[in-house]
Amino acid sequence: DRPKPLAGKKAIVTSGPTYEPIDPVRYIANRSSGKQGHAIAVALAELGANVTLISGPVAIDDPQQVATIHVERAEEMLDAVLSHLPADIAVMVAAVADWRTTTSVDQKIKKQSMNQPMALQLTENPDILKIVGHHANRPNIVIGFAAETQDIEKNGRLKLERKGADIIVANDVSTASGVMGGDRNRVKIISRTGTDIWPDLDKHEVARNLAALIAEKIS
Ligand code: C5P
């Protein structure tokens, strides 16, 4: 049996996209397979943590070693996260949609006549990571992700401060990187003490390395 450095620790992991309904048949979402978030949930569980995975709609299976809660909208994801505080560890991997519609979603919106522009009114979603990072019951370790296409380290460091995170895992999601939906990831670990650049790794290896780093920090 492998050592369980996170035994007795409670972890919350968000994963996948959120779907923000426009009407009963349409939605706004970010691209996210859930692969990295789910792998992190499993890696934490393998180190003995009691993990709650809060996932938006994904095409992959629920991991076996963790309790998975399924949500659709960002507001539902926030409620689920807050209802699981206090916790020792929070890793917010979900690609939360930045906006949701303000309009009613009860009926399917009819197509307008040709050449008529269609307008959607949007309002900003709550920033789950930021809320957790500044919460009275803030977990000991709060980790966020930053999917960037440029100025990766600079933008990641800004995010670290603004969101009250201990670590931002920044990755290059420009289409040339192949990270989106793929099995591999190349990340920079940004913390207050500096930046660590990890090589190109399988998403499961990124997850295991991150779980080991969390175990190191918590002990
Ligand atoms: O600001 P940005 O979306 O780039 O930040 C990414 C990080 O913040 C990720 O860890 C993501 O899970 C989290 N986030 C969140 N709630 C939002 C937006 C982002 O938890 N509404």
Structural write-up:
CTP binds at residues 98, 108, 126-129, 145, 159, 163. It catalyses: N-[(R)-4-phosphopantothenoyl]-L-cysteine + H(+) = (R)-4'-phosphopantetheine + CO2; (R)-4'-phosphopantothenate + L-cysteine + CTP = N-[(R)-4-phosphopantothenoyl]-L-cysteine + CMP + diphosphate + H(+). Residues 6-216 form the DNA/pantothenate metabolism flavoprotein C-terminal domain. Catalyzes two sequential steps in the biosynthesis of coenzyme A. In the first step cysteine is conjugated to 4'-phosphopantothenate to form 4-phosphopantothenoylcysteine. In the second step the latter compound is decarboxylated to form 4'-phosphopantotheine. Keywords: Decarboxylase, Flavoprotein, FMN, Ligase, Lyase, Magnesium, Metal-binding, Multifunctional enzyme. With 219 residues, the chain is α/β, with parallel strands linked by helices. It is built from 5 helices and 14 strands. The protein has helices spanning 35-46, 74-83, 128-133, 152-163, 203-218; strands at residues 10-15, 20-23, 26-28, 50-55, 67-70, 89-92, 99-101, 122-124, 141-148, 167-172, 184-185, 187-191, 194-197, 201-202. The strands form 4 sheets. The chain has an 8-stranded mixed β-sheet with strand order 5-4-1-6-9-10-12-13, with helices on both faces. Strand 9 (141-148), helix 4 and strand 10 form a beta-alpha-beta unit. Helix 1 (35-46) packs across helix 5 (203-218). The radius of gyration is 18 Å and the shape is globular. The two termini are 20 Å apart. The mean pLDDT is 93. Bound molecules: cytidine-5'-monophosphate (C5P).
